[in-house]
Amino acid sequence: CSVSRAGLLSGRIPSTFGFMYNITDRGDVDEGAGLPTNVPTLAERLKPMGYDTAAFGKWHQGSSPKYYPTKRGFDEYFGFLAGESVYATPDTPGIITTPTSADRYKPGEREGAQRLFEGPDMTPVAQPHKYLTESITDHAVDFIDRKAGGKNPFFLYLAYNAPHWPLQVPREYYDRHSEIKDPKRRTYVAMIDALDQGVGQVLKALDDKGVRDDTLIVFLSDNGCPVQFGYCTQTHPWGAGKFTYLEGGMRVPFMAAWPGHIIAGQRIDTPVSSLDIVPTVLDAAAPGRALPTGLDGIDLMRTLGGTAPATRRFFWDQRPVQAMREGRYKLWRSLDWKQVKLYDIEADPWERTDLSMKLPKEAARLE
Predict the structure, then answer these.
(1) Which listed site, 77, 123, 136, 297, has its alpha carbon 20 to 30 Å from 59?
(2) How large is the angle between the packed helices 132-147 and 183-208, nearest 10 degrees?
(3) Can you give the three-state secondary structure of the chain, one letter per residue?
(4) Which residues lie below 8 Å from residue 302, measured CB to CB, with a gap of 6+?
(5) What is the rounded distance in angstroms from the CA atom of residue 275 to the CA atom of residue 5?
(6) Per-residue pLDDT for the chain (367 aa), expressed as one digit of tens each?
(7) d(C-alpha 299, C-alpha 304), whole Å
(8) How far apart are CA 38 and CA 238, in angstroms?
(9) Rounded distance, CA 136 to CA 240, Å?
(10) To 5 degrees, how large is the angle CA 242–CA 36–CA 367?
(11) Contact 216, 284 (CB under 8 A)
């Protein structure tokens, strides 16, 4: 969660600045853990270009004041600072809460960094009797309503926590999916439905304000499905894999829309990364301006235009386990176990057949 966000917000491979592990500040504040303050966020790069900026939802880039979003280039913030939080307090009417075998504690009142905060001064928010996904949407729509058509362009980082654990959803969404008999998966799908409704409201706000054609929108997930909660689709090779380097852990939904610049309805098979968002946005905001040095992504408009490199290298590093992909091959290495495994993910999307002995030269080259 926190590592993928560090990459998305910085445009850099997180291990290059020492960020390799999740911040585990579930209820407490870890003063030393966070996105290093000398690593600029996308918001910090856009502010000098005249952008109004906001972040709403999950932060997970550090919960001490120096890491707070309004200290990292964002003018506005509403959300929680930890890796997870409940969607609704127990006294919120109409909420379905579905337990799982991996629950660590019963969903209840928010505590520590799980509490809701807002404003420039990290002001705690009273426990609202509302579903959190809907509250996050409300803040996003309000920001668009206030900023669209103003003198400054705007950047909105909308970080929904849905469908992260715990499994909670309003009954109206749960009742829509009676065809799903497993209550865990039914709740999970209903949470995604509620998320989709929120995205629809955001798009409608852009339409209503007449700025949809001028707005680049990127939508993606941060990781694959966590199998331990019991609602993943393991019949598909990418149906589970969070916390792993399996394709199911790293292949995620990734969509972009920008009328007049991106042709609607096309599907691009060239691999891309969340690291590509920062250079794409910066190039869109200031065409022709040189990109900052040190970025590890590329402008996605090159991919959409067919001018991206035919083969790219992708690296993941959460030592003692590391991985890389180049073309159809993925190499996995354990420093502790002193093992190397090589997979052809086009022929073997399940990653069940280790080819390191059969293709030793390819394995050695990638290692």
Answers:
(1) 297
(2) 10
(3) CHHHHHHHHHCCCHHHHCCCCCCCCCCCCCCCCCCCCCCCCHHHHHHHHCCEEEEEEECCCCCCHHHCHHHCCCCEEEEECCCCCCCCCCCCCCEEEECCCCCCCCCCCCCHHHCEEECCCCEECCCCCCCHHHHHHHHHHHHHHHHCCCCCCEEEEEECCCCCCCEEEEHHHHHCCCCCCCHHHHHHHHHHHHHHHHHHHHHHHHHHCCCHHHCCEEEECCCCCCHHHCCCCCCCCCCCCCCCCCHHHHCCCEEEECCCCCCCCCCCCCCCCHHHHHHHHHHHHCCCCCCCCCCCCCCHHHHHCCCCCCCCEEEEEECCEEEEEECCEEEEEECCCCEEEEEECCCCCCCCCCCCCCCHHHHHHHC
(4) 308
(5) 10
(6) 899 999 999 999 999 999 999 987 655 556 678 999 999 999 999 999 999 999 999 999 999 999 999 999 999 999 999 998 999 987 888 999 998 887 776 666 788 888 999 999 999 998 778 999 999 999 999 999 999 989 999 999 999 999 998 999 999 999 999 999 999 999 999 999 999 999 999 999 999 999 999 999 999 998 999 888 888 888 899 999 998 999 999 999 899 999 999 989 988 888 899 999 999 999 999 998 999 999 999 999 888 877 777 788 999 999 999 999 999 999 999 999 999 999 999 999 999 999 999 999 999 999 9
(7) 9
(8) 36
(9) 27
(10) 50
(11) yes
Token pair for 30: 């870890």
Residue 306 zone, left/alpha/beta (φ > 0; ψ -120 to 50; rest): left
In the numeric block, the tokens 């339409």 are attached to 207
Q: Which two tokens mark 47?
A: 């502010």
Residue type at position 117 = F
